[in-house]
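Table S2 (text version). Query chain:
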Amino acid sequence: MKTVLLALASIKWVGDLHALSVSESCLEFGPCNSHVVLKPRPGYVPKVPTTPFWDQHEQMSVQLFDDIVKSLKAENENVLKENGLDNGDVTFIKELIEGAKASGDEWTYKGRDKDKCFLYEIVANKQNGIDVDKWDYFARDCHHLGIQNSFDHQRLMKSARVCNVNEWNHICFRDKEADNVYDMFRTRYTLHRQAYQHKIGNIIDIKFTEALILADRDLHKDKPKDMFTISAAIKSVKDYIKLTDDIIDQISSSTADKLKKSRAILNEISERKLPKFVGEARLMEENKFKVG
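Corresponding structure-token output:
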């Protein structure tokens, strides 16, 4: 899908195509490799004040990608050259993961020159939110959740062109695709409403957070000095990728008294003894500051 969009965008250099073929998705570990959630839970990390944390999961993705490149170079220092890449491409890939901010008077990114700024709108589009990262999880999650996806990414790609707007090159679409773009954002809203921000899912998130906070210092009793705690794991990529769902099993199967409260919370989740949903308020622009 990304390759087709790149072709429509009239990219002329194979190097750009090669570098752009590596995106955020390559940093996710599949189920067979103990899937790693890249975004720390915002409700969890701030309650461990001595630990630095990333407020955007893309930042940890860059850290992971850096570690992957270093590991490959340690095995073969010419690995980039042998695969048609160089250090500039590595920088470009990391910038793509984080995305370029809104256009200003000066181009500050180093991976590609200003005339190719439109490339930064493909993976993580900070200009308008239309990017292949969304299209990918729309197709995946709508399929597995049984939610209708009325957005047609193939039709939208056919109308994609690179246009110069106020001296900046942007990926633009035909005006007749306005309804299709609207469907994209509506699909995103539907997924958040019915799945990602579902009331029961949020309740369980809070309960998991409570269990992990309580277990943070006590998961490994009398642990050796080089063994990380849960919250400290994000200081090191090598420790962070070890944070798998196995932690929940460790807490549940433990007999340690200090983990008793954490085990009780996890048992409540398993037995669906959850807090009741009381209500919600939809914040609008005109009244968002009135909520006390």
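Notes on Table S2: The first strand starts at residue 161 and ends at 165. Residues 1-14, 22-46 have pLDDT under 50 and may be disordered.
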